[in-house]
Amino acid sequence: GGWLFGSEVLIQFDERQARRPDVAGWRRERLSAMPAEVPIAVLPDWVCEILSNNRADDLVAKMRLYHQSKVAHYWVIDPEAETLAVYRWHPDGYLHLLGAQKGERVRAEPFDAIEFVVGVLFGDDDEA
Predict the structure, then answer these.
(1) What is the DSSP string of 21-84?
(2) What's the half-sphere exposure (Cβ side, CA atoms, 13 Å) at 110?
(3) Of residues 47, 44, 48, 39, the one with CA closest to residue 16
(4) Average pLDDT, the chain
(5) Would you tell me how many other CB atoms lie within 10 Å of the CB of residue 39?
(6) Which long-range contacts (CB under 8 A, 24 or more apart) does 86-90 make?
(7) What is the spatial distance between Cα 1 and Cα 69, in angstroms, rounded to a whole number?
(8) pTM of whole model > 0.70?
(9) What integer pLDDT is reported at residue 54 of this predicted model?
(10) Which of 18, 27, 43, 76 sits at a 20 to 30 Å CA gap from 35?
């Protein structure tokens, strides 16, 4: 199977809202190649937002939209705090599965088959 990833690609989440997540991922059995048409109509299986000036948008508005769109996995990376938050879709709202900081080794859904050091998200090499 595998995954297909896109950075800052325009995705149509509902009839009114198209957004550009920082990074989005699709399981290849759902999207085998990046479509030529924009916005992309196939909803991603995973979305990652990197917090910056628009923190409230990432933590409230986008999280709400992604949940309503049934995006299965949502990651939030905070470069200032050097943390990773991992969420899984649930009918009642996203479940917070993991909170980790730089220096920790984690297995984070939906990529939990591999272990990585959170610091690699912030430019560190893969050393504990």
Answers:
(1) -SEEEEETTT-SS--SSSSB-SPPSEEEEE-STTHHIIIIIHHHHHHHTT-SEEEEEETTTTEE
(2) 17
(3) 39
(4) 95
(5) 14
(6) 87/63
(7) 23
(8) yes
(9) 87
(10) 76
Nearest to 48 by CA among 83, 69, 19, 73: 73
> Which pLDDT band holds residue 103 (cuts at 50, 70, 90)?
very high
Could you tell me the two tokens for 125?
Answer: 């090499």
Q: Which helix (H) or strand (E) holds 12?
A: strand 11-12
Question: Under a CB-based contact definition with an 8 Å cutoff, are residues 42 and 26 in contact?
Answer: yes
The pLDDT tens digits for 33-44 are 999 999 999 999
The alpha carbon of 59 is separated from its chain's Cα centroid by a whole number of angstroms, namely 12
